[in-house]
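Minimal example, chain plus glutamic acid.
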Amino acid sequence: MNEIRTRFAPSPTGFMHIGNLRTALYAYLFAKKNNGKFILRIEDTDRERLIENAVDTIYNTLKLAGLQHDEGPDNGGDCGPYIQSERKAIYAEYAKKLIDSGDAYYCFCTKERLESLTDESGNRRYDKHCLHLSKAEIEEKLASGVPYVIRQNVPTEGVSAYNDLVFGEISVENRELHDNVLIKSDGYPTYNFANVVDDHLMRISHVIRGMEYLSSTPNYNLLYRAFGWEIPQYIHLPHIMRDKQHKLSKRYGDANFEDFLEKGFLPEAIINYVALLGWNPKNDREKFTLTELAEAFDVAGISKSAAVFDEVKLRWLNSQYIQEMPTEEFQKHALPYFENLPANIDKELLIKLLQPRISVFSDIPEKLAFITAFEDYDINLLEDKNSKTTLELAKTVLPEVIALSENAAVWENDALFEAYNALTEKLGVKRKQLLWLVRIALTGQASTPCGATEACVLLGKDEALRRLKYSLQRIS
Ligand code: GLU
């Protein structure tokens, strides 16, 4: 069997759409699973949409995601150049071959004429007008520099069919196909041409890409046939949606890999989650490293139906990665969020408290809000229906807690816990009630990443006492 070769062929748009990341991932996994090669090709022939540094974004993203390509613009290979704008002469040469064989033709039609071909519903089909120009007419127009494009000459009869490894048999009436532009008036190829020439010359065995290309693939297959080239296997991937009706979108911050990195998700977790968007490992397993994915990946598990992106699930997966992280690594990620905390805060304890309690790193500021913002809290929080804790109870319990705390010889979690526990017996209140009051009086928040005594230790004795007194004063 020939070597398995897949490619990722992004257009440099400046960001990495989640759908494109999944395409890259599946192409990578399929190659790795089959001992093949994963190739990176930059598709930058749309010269009007070029964005500075966008190619660097592609390299950086693939690196972060761990998808190392075997061949590409930056690491070479025997099928280069791997940047389409550097392959202009190659496309021109192959377009000329198609013209000679009658599978393509020069088209000199003006914009106005093309626009006049648009029907009431806004659809436009080129009418092969220029196919019928005489050789002399063509020569003359070329010689006098009339702008032109080169179009594919698709048959007007018959059916084109192919087998997609995910979507099965796809069949199209040839009269539905368009005479696609292959070479534009600026001399650059369109995707519709370059993908065929490059996939062939780069010996791509399996073309993996989004399903938006399903319906134009018959056009491409006609080109392969015209050249007498072997047609690759196709693996088209279903769309990724936010819900049944809506695509992922930049507006909701769920379109791009970068959006999720910014929200504090880990690249490994994103990759793991994206792998499951449209691919089912056929068991209940959800957590996979990249290497494990490459072992488990199987085209038979790719679904035809749209995948729905579930950020809640991604959060869960991310929390799994966070919890399994070595403490030092967690600390590295968490420390930048500690910058504005008072110097005396016990950071080590904070790390211990946070690691099991956050799903993404950007949860940290909210969890720590009680440390920096305390004074204005709603005093009614001291009341708790569940444990029948009231403000009246607070008025008797808090002075006792303060007295005991002031005299505490060791300011440490277990000792404080024991002391407060003993106090509940003395006062005849429930432990739940006392700990609730202390925690709220110290933090001013219903939900905190720490219990009452942990809050004491975190804040330190002076600050803890100051807060207890402040809270008492507010209810007195
Ligand atoms: N440049 C195309 C895109 O970004 C690539 C499609 C393909 O994978 O063939 O959509």
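Residues 9-11, 43, 191, 195, 209 surround glutamic acid (CB under 6 Å). The first strand starts at residue 5 and ends at 8.
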